[in-house]
Amino acid sequence: MLAIRGKIAKRRKKHLFLFGGIGFFILFVIVVIPMLISLFVFLAVDSNSGSYSYDIPLFGYQDAIPGPLKQIYEEVGRQYHIPWNILAAVHKIDGDYLNEMKSLFPNDVPFAQVFHEAGAKYGVDPALLKAIAKQESNFNPKELSHAGARGIMQLMPANCQEAGLDPNGDCWDPVKNIHAGAQEIARYLKKYQGNLIFALAAYNAGPARVSGMDDNPRPPEVPPIPETQDYVKKVPMYYEQFKKGMGDGKVDPAKIEEIRKKVESVASKLAEKRKKHEDSSKQGNPTACMVELKKKTVKEVKEGKAGNYGALTCALAEYFSESWSKVAQVEEQAQLYLGSVMLTGSGKPVSFGGRMLWPVQVGGGVHKQGGCVSSPYGQNRGTYYHRGVDISAPMGTPVFAAEAGKVYISKADPISLSDPIGFGWYVGIDHGNGLTTWYGHMPRKSVLVKVGDYVQKGQKIAEVGRNGMTDTQAHLHFEVHINQDRDRIDPTPFIGKGVPCNRSKFDPSYYTHPIYGVNE
Ligand SMILES: [Zn+2]
Predict the structure, then answer these.
(1) CATH of span 1-53+107-249
(2) Which long-range contacts (CB under 8 A, 24 or more apart) does 30-39 make?
(3) Where is the M23ase beta-sheet core domain (predicted)?
(4) Which of 52, 264, 370, 460 has the greatest number of beta carbons closer than 10 A?
């Protein structure tokens, strides 16, 4: 805790690259040229489909898959041409997954009993305390960070003193150290009304960085410090593991082989059944399931909860003895594994299994990614952090819905000196599961949607402008929110990095004139 610099210094490895002329030439030939070629292939493929898209990385701490299992799903999935996430989902839903995980990870952590005692005393889940200890010190009672954080729970001297411990004495006692850490996280959980992420951010970066000083508070946010951002992802991941009884993460090799055989057996059954359903359609004599799927006569398919995998869906239905609710569960879980976001204290995951479109698109007919990034997410602006990405583009460049959804905001953000955001006219789209996107600074007259409208992914909703508190150039301010606008997160994983603006070579059409507070 409070050990930002120390921990970062400790973890960073120093890399030194020294290239002579020849070395650089070799590097260019074997690395840069193939990279350029693959980039062009990527661009060519993508412009054919008319949009730029990116895979969303797995955020799903809620459903974090232990590494050794992920490897099994991937390997077996490749062998049988079945998506790994389907295999993972079947494994989770079909059978006694939790007990299986317990036997896969037989060892509990060091000081396990102390974590349980401290958890009971301060009303904190012992699994959470284990997770913090794992991330902070990997259970090493002698760990000392460069910033001076001490012991298993990495208490700063001030934290030791708060708990009545001597920073150079009994604060190093593992039992007392764990109890003091438990007390600290319990205090933050109370302060942030059970919001785990804010509580963890406070434990890592100090409460002042999360919600200001007590006499000058502001709404809490995870500070855009890389270590803290990493911390609030990793600790919940460990937390989920420890909740499942995964102990120290060491795997029983015999058990892993047992699981591999089980997954292989499931995969071979599914592949066989899939082929039967596939062939039936090819031969013009489709199975009942393929007919039902096409006509959407099954309730779960009609409701969009199943049916995304064609013949494989039918194979799943057969595997689960026509229990379509099980099929729906598997497909939902599979989507969750593909791309999911969970940053909520309630532990409810937000699922988003897909890709978003870069919201500024140029070109007639076939669109492509437009504009450049003039201000990234997380930029420190003195009194606040920039919680979106600014995409600069000429006035009037079309703004597209990054994903399908329902428009739930379309209004002017009133300009005032106390409002540093000043979105101008902005639109919010609800994509379901608590996931929303916001689009700001658009001229009112350009906005094509109203509250209640359903929009398609890639539908034009407005144009780039400079409405509100904008810089010298027109730009779209784009935000991605999860947990129903409670957390504004980095849009990069959803839409990609984009191209940074080269300010010295700025297209003059991007400029308006230096002005703040336009409302047009
Ligand atoms: Zn902005």
Answers:
(1) 1.10.530.10
(2) none
(3) 385-485
(4) 370
